[in-house]
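haha ok so turns out i had the wrong file open the whole time. this is the CORRECT one, sorry everyone. sequence first:
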Amino acid sequence: MFADFDPLDLKPGQMVSDWRIVRRIGSGGYAVVYEVERDGERFALKVACQTERSIDPRQTDARARREVACLQQLSHRNIIRMLTSGRWPHARSGFHYIVLDFVDGYTLARWVERTNPTPHEVVVLFLKLFDALEHMHAKKVLHRDLSLRNIMVTKDGEPVIIDFGAADYATAEDLTDGPLPPGTPRNRSPEAQSFWDENRLKHGARYTFKETDDIFALGANLYDVLTDPTPERSERRPVLNSMLLMPPTPYRATKGRVPGELSAYAMKLIHRDLEVRPATAKDARRLLADLERYEGAEWRELPIHPASSQLLPEPPATEPLPVEARQPEGPQEPIPSHPFPVQAGSADAATVPSAAAGGPVQHIPRRAWLRPVFLGTLALSVFAAVVAASVLHRPAQPEPPPVARSAPAEQPPASSPLAEKPTSRPERLASPLPTQKEASLSVKLPDNSPTLTNGVPDPQQVQKASGRRALIKKCAALVASVAWLEAGCTGVQTRPDPEPCPEEAVKAMRKELGWSVGYQYSGPGILLDVTKGTYEEQREQPTTVWKDGPVTGALIRAEGKAPAGMRVDGHLWTTGDRIYGRYVRAHLPGGRTVPICLELANQGELGSTLEEGSKPGAPVASKVSGTVAVERWR
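then structure:
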């Protein structure tokens, strides 16, 4: 529309209204951010436009207007300040821009790495953050994406909450299309995650985001600061929003370097029980203020993380450094931070498997997935028999006590002789063996499984699938019993049978989406499940635990006629030696859907590789994958 104004590629020296472009800082879901200068001062200029990562481009302008409305209501030293907003190059139809203070500092994660703070320094920092959150909530503004990247720390040590692109206020219009508002999945509250699990496929279901969700998110950040010396670089961190599992306490995770009182406070903020968590930001700040007065070396002198834990591991002298791990040329410090997460341009190709990055996909031979499972079943049966025998010959154990409903029960106060102290004997670590619940197979299949290619299930297939589900459920219940073999449980289907792809799907992929169909061609790279974060967020936490069931993914970048961010519906199978997936429906711009046949494939092999940390019932794999568009499911 404006030939001389490309918001994604403004050059240094170019003027936007009265602001001179210095450099591009980064881009996100609906905007690109630049460092700008006027009258010798630096500012941040955020231009609303459709980027390659836009999931809902039609809402771009609306989100910019809502961000402005939120920032206009806020005035706090620890919240980013908006100076002005407008449109450019045309006052009525131009791109929406926002001018903000330039935060010269680091993300919260980088601050942890650079300063290696003491417990007291962390307490002081989060006191200011909770004070800012209290101010925000008093103005009826919800941030909805308080993450390690959306909290900056200036070089003077002042925290600043930034990026209100996902924020909401009391009278704002609803811009969310899905059950949950945009945000960082890791920092979503247990109740929000439970809502998603129950309503992800219900059209029109909407979660009501509350102040307690913001409080949980800030508590999740505190937990990561206390337990992880390199929060931005860590690939595997414990899940925080599970209704079933609680992560290790910061005291345990750091072997006592986090004082017991601060550890108990952090666990209180992320407790799965709403009655345990603080109800308001004011309550959370008041509880934390009590810890600011603590004296002693363990609070004010000893860093939480040993310096050695923040160093990158040295590669073996005999092996060359991988290309993706090499440091870029040129000076690296200092890098001024900003009110928007920096997205390294070279990270895309390194993160996505070769098929997703556009590399050739070799012809994929049919895997012998029906190979005999006798050995595995026999081993499981022997193990189950031993377990069953030991249980039968062991006196019954009493029920474990319920989960503590208050922090003091888990972490006694300082006056108690049982209080956690740096000199306390460490707790016994949890058993590395999976529990019965963890070992149980995920057996919930869609009603029209296993074909997933037709909107109306075949009655014969439904009857056959129902019998199969009944057997699988029975087998899952008998997983720790010698009755496994007697029940005829020779194995669980790790993926559906090969079958032809519907003609209408092949036609839609070729003509409407412009895709090359066949195993010799690479398909689009996809984010397997949009509920587990955006493509940018997966760089912070690239792997996750998967389970069988329906899934909605999104294209990482444009492919043929299909735009970046296009949603695709499908199903995952996770009980085998790999993660297998088939996507059968694409959501086109405008709301229309078309059938597709898109199969997960990486480096010439179907499915995604299981990563370190996988265990029965809880496989770990990448959040992104390559694909192939097929005429026949393999």
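The chain has four domains: 1-102, 105-311, 370-387+435-493, 499-633.
again sry for the mixup
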